[in-house]
Amino acid sequence: MLETPQRRPARFITFEGGEGVGKSTQVRRLLTRLANKGIEGVRTREPGGTPKAEAIRSFILQGRSEAWGAGAEAVLFAAARLDHVNQLIGPNLEKGTWVVSDRFCDSTRAYQGLTGGVEDRLIDALEVLALDGHSPDLTIVLDMDPVIAFERVQRRAVEDGLQVTGDRFEKEEIEWHRRLRHGFLDIASANAYRCVVISAEQSEEALEEAIWDVVSSRFPELQGRAA
Ligand SMILES: Nc1ncnc2c1ncn2[C@@H]1O[C@H](COP(=O)(O)OP(=O)(O)OP(=O)(O)O)[C@@H](O)[C@H]1O
Ligand SMILES: [Mg+2]
């Protein structure tokens, strides 16, 4: 008789989507909701998440890997992810702590793969190696018109006291963000068992509620827990 595979003692949830759609905001809100239900969780992010992976993140974000091309960058992201999975994600899940990550493997597929031109077989192979069996249990893909997301990012920069350079999106840039948006939607439909697309064009509170509906109906252990 086939044995039912043992479920991990905790859940791994990732948030994906384009820039400024509200991922970081909703990761924080979800962890607060989980804590209110008595669920311990950790917040993490990609690229990065551990000291070694953060070192690779800053190397890439400073533009130091650019000359090597998107393929080499995908390999570097995979090296960072391997450390993140082995040092943070795996150990927390094994001890029963939920993990919520602000971006994960689908961002590599969308940025280096669909919009960066790295071939699928490299992305697929790196994903298998770096995940080491730690696929997310649920991925929330936040979806919205990139022009509205851009306006949010501009407002965030002003709130953070940063200098805002340029107050409009160049046409080419909009097109690139539209391609990225459709890339995430394609990834979600190819992985429908894991990904749920939610419109991010709603208030922070309404979006939090929509995400909670998905999370709480997906995981039976959350049902019937006192708030
Ligand atoms: N539902 C919402 N409605 C309006 N503004 C929002 C909403 N969610 C987040 N914001 C604001 O939009 C900005 C971007 O949100 P946030 O930083 O969470 O997005 P992000 O997806 O993490 O962005 P990035 O891709 O740059 O990391 C912030 O200033 C945030 O306060
Ligand atoms: Mg963010």
Automatic annotation (TrEMBL):
Pfam families (alphabetical): Thymidylate_kin
Family matches, as InterPro entries: P-loop_NTPase, Thymidylate_kin-like_dom, Thymidylate_kin_CS, Thymidylate_kinase
Alphabetic keyword roster: ATP-binding, Kinase, Nucleotide biosynthesis, Nucleotide-binding, Transferase
Catalytic activity: dTMP + ATP = dTDP + ADP
Binding locations of ATP: 17-24
GO molecular function terms attached to this record: ATP binding; dTMP kinase activity
GO biological process, one term: dTTP biosynthetic process
EC number: 2.7.4.9
Domain Thymidylate kinase-like: 15-211
Cellular component, GO annotation: cytosol
Superkingdom field: Bacteria
Function: Phosphorylation of dTMP to form dTDP in both de novo and salvage pathways of dTTP synthesis.
Family note: Belongs to the thymidylate kinase family.
Name of this chain's protein: Thymidylate kinase
Species of the source: Devosia oryzisoli
